[in-house]
Amino acid sequence: MDVCLSSAQQSLLPGALQEDGTGGPPGDANNIESSLRSLQKFVPTDYASYTQEHYQFAGKKIVIQESIESYGAVVWPAATALCQYLEEHQEELNLQDAKILEIGAGPGLVSIVASILGAQVTATDLPDVLGNLQYNLLKNTLKCTAHLPEVKELVWGQDLEQNFPRAALHYDYVLASDVVYHHYFLDKLLLTMVHLSQQGTVVLWANKFRFSTDYEFLDKFKQVFDTTLLAEYPESTVKLFKGTLKWD
Ligand SMILES: C[S@@+](CC[C@H](N)C(=O)[O-])C[C@H]1O[C@@H](n2cnc3c(N)ncnc32)[C@H](O)[C@@H]1O
């Protein structure tokens, strides 16, 4: 089993991070652990809620820092299903150097696995979970992926053209896991998926189906995307869909 750098190994590296986590030489010492700590803007108020959860995908051990205090700081069931699919279909999906954006990335497991599989990944979410997301991404991809994943704020439906101008972007894949649940932003979520899709962009959306509103969202998704059910995971009631934007 191949493993990314341990904390101890990382702290020995000649610097690869700046304080803002963007890469390049560190400001003072070679202590990457302290740089990683400084990135953690998401700080649970109940420290007992922090856990380190372990996953194995693409031949790597992945350690994710989670907290039950935020929806966006926990790995949800559709994330592991999507990771399994990416791992099993990496060649068919042609993930090497593929340009990928993940929406609602949460603690980052899907983006980490896509990065390990060779993709150029931008992981996005609400501002308050980006610190933990950045921490997990760096911890699990530093020095063991061809492309260091990026983290960017993306609030569904908000300032999309300003922050993600359609003329300038082309993603091969937009990934989304468990972004559909009981919340008030489903129309904005769909709008965001559409905005990020160009000719050739494939949306891979995995979701645990719980509520009637989840199926209502699926109906709306099918109205704007040519939709294929790629996989079902009956043990978790997760379904994985492929969508390509209808252009007529
Ligand atoms: C149920 S969690 C799923 C997290 C991760 N994708 C997973 O499957 O483990 C939903 C994610 O969507 C994000 N989210 C919720 N509402 C959002 C919004 N309006 N704009 C952007 N992200 C949002 C949350 O912060 C959270 O990370």
From TrEMBL:
GO terms for biological process: cellular response to dexamethasone stimulus; hormone-mediated apoptotic signaling pathway; methylation; regulation of release of sequestered calcium ion into cytosol by sarcoplasmic reticulum; skeletal muscle tissue development. Keywords: Methyltransferase, S-adenosyl-L-methionine, Transferase. InterPro entries: Methyltransf_16 (IPR019410), SAM-dependent_MTases_sf (IPR029063). This is Methyltransferase 21C, AARS1 lysine. SUPFAM superfamilies: S-adenosyl-L-methionine-dependent methyltransferases. GO terms for cellular component: cytoplasm; nucleus; protein-containing complex. GO terms for molecular function: heat shock protein binding; protein-lysine N-methyltransferase activity. Pfam families: Methyltransf_16 (PF10294). The gene is METTL21C. It comes from the Eukaryota.
